[in-house]
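In this supplementary section we document a worked example of the pipeline. Step one takes a protein sequence of length 182 as its only input; no multiple sequence alignment statistics are reported here. Step two produces a three-dimensional model, which step three serialises into structure tokens for compact storage. The input and output of this example are shown verbatim.
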Amino acid sequence: MTTPTLASNARADRRFAVFNAVVSLGALSFIAYVLLRGRAAEGAAELSFMPAVNATLNAIAATLLVAGWLAIRRGAVHVHRALMVSAFAVSSVFVIGYLYYHSVHGDTPYTGGGALRVVYFVVLITHILLSMVVVPGALTSFYFAYTRAFDRHRRLNRIFLPIWLYVSVTGVLIFFLLRAHS
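The serialised model returned by step three reads:
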């Protein structure tokens, strides 16, 4: 009798994997399009305040991630769930703000030099590369929790949570490094 359940779980997992791949590739493609296309036409909205808003959203997301981790360590499952969904929502608002800002203003060049320039680019490159994992990782984490596959959820998040936290924290660091040298 367990075979139909296992088979239906495998089908659901495959459907989710396809959904996750489509959403994640769509999100990455859209981000790449916005960043590679450059800035919008002259006369676009003034959004110079957005980098500070985006850094704040990253800081809030990082705080929610740590609070969610602490909540689950204490066994507060409902609090953990609320905090992690909130972290995802805040990160989603960040991505929308980030894309809107970059579609209007383009990239902000780093003008600093010396060792700090190397630090900036190491942080930036690792931030960008690891940020590509956040959408599929978060969706997979939520899927495992939703389907009550808690062993899989825990195994994934031993690796994924530090990545998401690193991306959030380095987003704030990048903001401050750019502001110090722009």
